[in-house]
Design brief:
The protein is 71% helix and 0% strand. With 296 residues, the protein is mainly alpha-helical. It has one domain: Ribonucleotide Reductase, subunit A, CATH 1.10.620. The relative contact order is 0.17. The N terminus is likely disordered. Bound molecules: fe (ii) ion (FE2) (2 copies). One fe (ii) ion (FE2) binds next to helix 5, helix 6 and helix 9.
């Protein structure tokens, strides 16, 4: 698999990628350390960390009947679940970015931009960890560790492969759509959370632009049979990731202090309003993936 997916870009593509890397490196300055920028004193679990419309149980009559603070507690626990998703994706990406520094196959200009991405992802992971710490919740394990195949592929396919960058692009798109939905509801959420997602959106816009271009170059001359194979693999990985991302595990309902957490999760799984929210989020991601050739 790693060899089959390895596609070195041709010289014109190398030029395009180097030009983009130069521009993005320029746009990455000045670096803003999220730990220093975010007003952590404002981060309170007395506020909502997600707007009501983004909760997995939104619209479920039994949940809507609960006291307001209990519903806010779920918003904190579900935000922690989102942060865990960010940490899982960023850890894999940082690992590969750091490894890529050991080779010189991309030239200095692209290496420089990869270091900007590495620094920014480290900053995001720091702010996600700090946020989890402020939540006072202590999730025992990351539900994303169940995605063994995705984790294995992300570690072992070639760094230059369209498969690697397709998964990077899809992961970043999911987190980005979620952050955008959150940011539209500024008054409904805690100001430090709003700050956090705003910082993430600005940095991720560059990361997404970069990933889109790398995918585009890597797929440009790909034979149809390989494109189809790639589409099947990415579709399978994507399905499993979004199922965990949008449908938190029992642990999340437990951390929110809800009794009978298994039953709450079942209600979330069959919640039509959640399904409508997820469908709306995925619609725009599918379009991006289709335009990039990642999805049919
Ligand atoms: Fe990030
Ligand atoms: Fe990113």
């Amino acid at each position: 698999m790693p060899t089959m997916q390895n596609t070195r870009s041709s010289p014109p593509h190398d030029d395009r990628l180097a030009t983009l890397a130069e521009q993005l490196s320029h746009n990455s300055l000045p670096y803003r350390d999220p730990l220093a920028v975010i007003d952590w004193t404002a981060l309170s679990t007395g506020d909502a960390w997600l707007p009501p419309e983004m909760l997995s149980l939104h619209g479920v009559a039994e949940f809507d009947a609960l006291p307001e603070q209990q519903r806010r507690d779920l918003s904190v626990a579900e935000f922690v679940h989102f942060a865990q998703g960010g940490l899982w994706l960023e850890a894999l990406f940082m690992e590969r970015l750091a490894q890529a520094m050991q080779g010189d196959s991309h030239g200095l200009t692209r290496q420089l931009y990869q270091l900007h991405e590495l620094r920014e992802e480290a900053g995001h992971s720091l702010m996600f960890c700090e946020t989890i710490r402020h939540s006072g919740l202590n999730p025992a394990r990351s539900p994303y560790s169940r995605l063994r195949l995705a984790g294995w592929l992300a570690r072992h396919v070639s760094f230059d492969s369209p498969l690697f960058w397709s998964t990077v692009l899809l992961g970043e798109e999911v987190a980005d759509r979620f952050s955008r939905a959150l940011r539209q509801q500024q008054v409904a959420v805690n100001p430090a959370i709003y700050q956090l997602v705003s910082i993430h959106l600005v940095d991720e816009a560059r990361h997404i632009a970069h990933a889109r271009e790398v995918v585009g170059c890597a797929m440009a001359d790909m034979p149809a049979w390989r494109r189809k194979l790639l589409q099947r693999i990415t579709a399978g990985l994507f399905r499993r990731f979004v199922q965990i991302f949008y449908y938190p595990p029992v642990q999340t309902y437990e951390l929110a202090g809800l009794s009978q957490p298994r039953q709450w999760r079942q209600l979330a799984l069959s919640n039509p309003q959640r399904q409508a929210f997820v469908t709306a989020q995925l619609r725009s991601i599918h379009k991006v993936a289709h335009d990039a050739g990642i999805f049919p």
